[in-house]
Write a structure and sequence with these properties.
Shape: elongated
Distance between the termini: 41 Å
Helix content: 55-70%
Number of helices: 12
Oligomer: single chain
Length: 300
């Protein structure tokens, strides 16, 4: 939350550029009010209203987690926004400042999302739509963010329509670019943390290796009896699914127990189940019952 607050408040807000999310909406309110309503105050108040309206649909766990995250982020932005909006921007060039701010914001978003955190804002709106089956999460987030940025065209402006178009279109493009950058950075952070690796390990010391992986990492090991075609020798192969951050430990375990073992590590597109991502499949009105049952039977 602190990383996001710094990226937004230090690099983006002083240039009067509106980004997506609740931060972008609060920026609109800040400038529409003649810079009298603080961004942090709007963020906190709007989040409470959204959560109160969607409490029954979203559930207690989501609401509690979001209240904590939203309050923390609002306080952090509120503590530092006064200084940076009353002084000249640290980075005077709009392009460099937006690039830096969006990159830092993306790191913050990626960190709290990868740990199941929530800062509220458009997360609440999109989660509500997702629960109701009216929109996919990614599509809903994109539409809400683009709409918020586009509304910056209506911000108070001294000049005729031609001057407004020249000035506001540029800031809107900066806002859209910011959305693209911080979502890409956040995706990389989240995927790096959740990337699943499949190990195929062939070793004569399979029992010792399996025991250490199970007890030191808490990862399950599946064993298969394999026969070499040329030699006709029967050996045991271990299959292990783990996260990216576990790979070095597995390599070290195998090297310590059997330096001559065969190890194949490949990226698994997705692994669902105990210890990994939950298996969720939303049945829409377009889903055919027979197709759904066939999928379920084939899976089991």
């Amino acid at each position: 939350m602190a990383i996001y607050a710094i990226g937004f408040t230090v690099f983006i807000l002083p240039h009067e550029i509106v980004t997506g999310g609740m931060a972008g909406f609060s920026t609109l309110v800040y400038y529409f009010s003649g810079e009298t309503i603080p961004v942090g105050a709007t963020m906190f108040g709007a989040n409470l209203l959204l959560l109160a309206g969607g409490y029954r649909t979203l559930g207690r766990e989501f609401v509690v987690r979001t209240v904590f995250g939203a309050a923390l982020l609002s306080v952090m932005i509120g503590m530092i926004e006064g200084y940076f909006t009353s002084h000249a921007p640290i980075v005077s060039d709009n392009t460099m400042s937006v690039l830096m701010g969006s990159f830092v914001c993306g790191i913050g978003i990626g960190l709290y999302y990868s740990h199941n955190g929530s800062a509220g804002g458009t997360d609440i709106v999109v989660a509500y739509l997702d629960k109701k089956g009216r929109s996919s999460f990614g599509r809903g987030m994109f539409l809400v963010d683009v709409t918020i940025v586009s509304l910056s065209f209506l911000l108070p402006f001294e000049g005729d329509m031609d001057a407004r178009v020249q000035a506001r279109v540029q800031t809107i493009l900066y806002g859209w670019a910011s959305i693209f950058i911080y979502t890409q950075v956040a995706d990389m952070m989240i995927n790096a943390n959740r990337q699943t690796i499949q190990f195929n390990i062939l070793s004569n010391n399979w029992q010792r290796i399996s025991d250490r992986i199970t007890h030191e990492l808490g990862r399950g090991v599946t064993t298969l009896n394999c026969t070499g075609y040329w030699t006709g020798t029967t050996r045991t192969m271990m299959i292990v699914w783990c996260r990216q951050y576990d790979t070095d430990i597995i390599y070290n375990i195998v090297n310590e127990e059997d330096p001559e073992a065969y190890v194949i590590a490949t990226e698994a597109r997705s692994v669902h189940g105990n210890g990994f991502d939950p298996l969720k499949r939303k049945i829409t009105k377009h889903s055919h019952p027979a197709a759904t049952k066939a999928h379920s039977d084939s899976f089991h």
